[in-house]
Amino acid sequence: MQSDLFETMLEVIAVEYEAESDPQGPHTAQTLMVTPSPVALDSLPPCAFDADIRALLATSNHPVARAVLAAQTRLPWGSNPVEDLTEDSIAAMITVATLMGPNGPIPAPDVRLGLVYMRPDSYYPLHLHDADETYVIVAGQALWTAGEDVRMRRAGELIHHPSLMPHAFRTGPEGFLAIWRWSGDINTHSYAFIEDLGSALSA
């Protein structure tokens, strides 16, 4: 039953990216659906934000939010794949469940895909990377900077960051949970902050 819930979650995530206008979205969806998962779907210990994630997901009617909530005990929530490039204070704002990529758990050499939860009342400063990226918010909201576009983004909204576009997020009292995908040049070494967190918060 739990395996079915995990597979259902992957299918629902694939639907979101299949509908993306950027061709890398459907490519990511196809890769997700045709790549066997070698992951043993045993229950995992809850992450530090488990209760907060569950509470936030319960407020959303988005199909991915419902699917993630159902599969929550099987999700590998942990550190950001680029945590070694971030300050401790920034790393502490988020938790990431990587689902697909060069290092697994679902192996894929040219795409990365996962879930991200960001705590309430937090600011993740401007950063960029070589990878082409698309987020879909599934619960909560954030003031989102994508290049020159700065506006509130809510559940159901898709935000695309072409390669090297600076982007940042500021959460309110809810935080947010989203799915994300990387495609193109998905290296992690190009990940760089172009804004200092301390300066941003004091501005």
Summarize the structure in words.
With about 200 residues, this protein is α+β, with helices and mostly antiparallel strands. The chain has a single domain, classed as Jelly Rolls.
Outline of the structure:
This protein has 203 residues and is α+β, with helices and mostly antiparallel strands. It contains six helices and ten strands. The model has no long low-confidence stretch (mean pLDDT 92).
The appropriate CATH architecture is Sandwich
Do you know the CATH topology? Jelly Rolls
Strand segment count: 10
**Mean of the pLDDT scores?**
92
CATH class: Mainly Beta
Entry keywords:
34% strand; single chain; alpha+beta; globular; 10 strands; 203 residues; 10-stranded mixed beta sheet; 6 helices; Jelly Rolls
Q: What's the topology here?
A:
Blueprint: H1 2-18, H2 24-34, H3 50-57, H4 63-71, E1 77-78, H5 88-91, E2 94-101, E3 106-107, E4 112-118, E5 123-128, E6 132-146, E7 149-154, E8 158-161, E9 167-183, E10 192-193, H6 197-202
Parallel strand pairs: 2-3
Antiparallel strand pairs: 1-2, 2-4, 4-9, 5-9, 5-10, 6-7, 6-8, 6-9
Helix pairs in contact: 1-2, 1-4
